[in-house]
Amino acid sequence: MKVVCVGGGPAGLYLAILLKRRDPSHDVTVHERNPQGSTYGWGVTYWRGLLDRLREHDPVSARAIEEHSVRWSEGVAHVGDLATRQHGDEGFGIGRHRLLDLLADRARDLGVRLEYESEITEPPAGADLVVAADGVHSALRGRCAEQFGTRTTTGRNHYVWLGTTKVFDSFTFAFTETAHGWIWAYGYGYGDGHSTCVVECSPETFTGLGLDRADEGEGLALLEKLFAGILDGHPLIARGGAGWLNFRTLTNRAWHHGNLVLLGDAAHTTHYSIGAGTTLALEDAMCLAGALHEHTGLTGALAAYQRRRQAELLSAQSAARYSAQWYENLPRYIHLPPHRMFALLGQRHSPLLPYVPPQLYYGLDRAAGRLEVLRRLKRWLGPRAARALHARSTAHRD
């Protein structure tokens, strides 16, 4: 099979690796519009479950990724002058640049052709399969937006993706109160003496602080002052003129049209606050490679890929919606004692939390942790509530 993959991000490179591992006779080319070695972003996060799946699919690249990752097993939340620390699941951080280099090296070793500074805006002729892995602004998807049923919704809060030379030893949250409302940051290390630092605030805080009018230097100086307590004198760093954004959640009714298939952010996005973007993109690649191997016909393979991934994504998409809403409704939780606020921060994916008073939810959650019958009820009720609320919101939009 001749495969043309447009987009040299994690999803496109990993799909190429898996296809060549399955069948070295596949002719696979990855086209990336940017020069080799240039990439946006700082570090990306993933969790132990992804690493286990990477080992199953390609132990060589999994080993390289783990060796170049940093890890943590605690989270710390700073709320004003107070702080609380909790043990959690093992998490990993790796620089996006490093991740892409590792995947590109592995792809080349397997015989994949990588074409940099090669921009593809329409499906190339002669390919059996064209993979649109060219991100949220996919040019290939845009040519067939009606067939894919593309829909985007824009979040309320503003955010900016920054780096810092402060190396956080745990996943760090910092909430700072200003005269114009709360502003907060998420920070995590990823190696090479750097950490990612994402800053978010409401529209009212954004304009009240003058961040809508500040140039890059003025904005960074203000943020460094607001988060001095966690930065310990280290600077915040912007890259490539990246500015403040509102998160765009993208979905598609269909993921394939003819021999064109969507992968990663071209197919879906989930709010950054759940830290799952890279994981979901790599899982897309695993699923598509598996479907192509299991089905002899291309149409059947693409249909199976779409059906399976759309079903698997329901849980993550629900978690992302409720996580974004938790931060949009931060005043509801921020004045709780820090350990309780942090506990509910960890429960922000719950479809029940927005409908239960925070103090009551905290008490019920603590009780559920002690009583098996309540744990079973929570596991039974949560997914059903999520599906019902998702169906209701979808019906309302339509």
A few lines on this structure:
By secondary structure, this protein is α/β, with parallel strands linked by helices. Helix content is 43%, strand content 26%.
Structure description:
This protein is of the alpha/beta class and 398 residues long. It has 14 helices and 15 strands. The strands form 2 sheets. Strands 3, 4, 5, 8, 9, 10, 11, 12 and 13 form a 9-stranded mixed beta sheet that branches. The protein has a 6-stranded mixed beta sheet with strand order 6-2-1-7-15-14. Helix 1 packs parallel to helix 10 (277-294). The mean pLDDT is 91.
- Number of strand segments: 15
Residue runs with pLDDT of under 50 for 5 or more positions = none
- Basic shape: globular
Mean pLDDT: 91
Order of helical and strand elements: EHEEHHEEHEEHHEEEEHHHEEEEHHHHH
Our Rg estimate from Cα atoms comes to 22 Å
Count up the helices.
14
Strand content: 25-35%
Tell me the structural class.
alpha/beta
Please estimate the helix content.
Answer: 40-55%
Distance between the termini: 39 Å
Describe the largest sheet. 9 strands, mixed
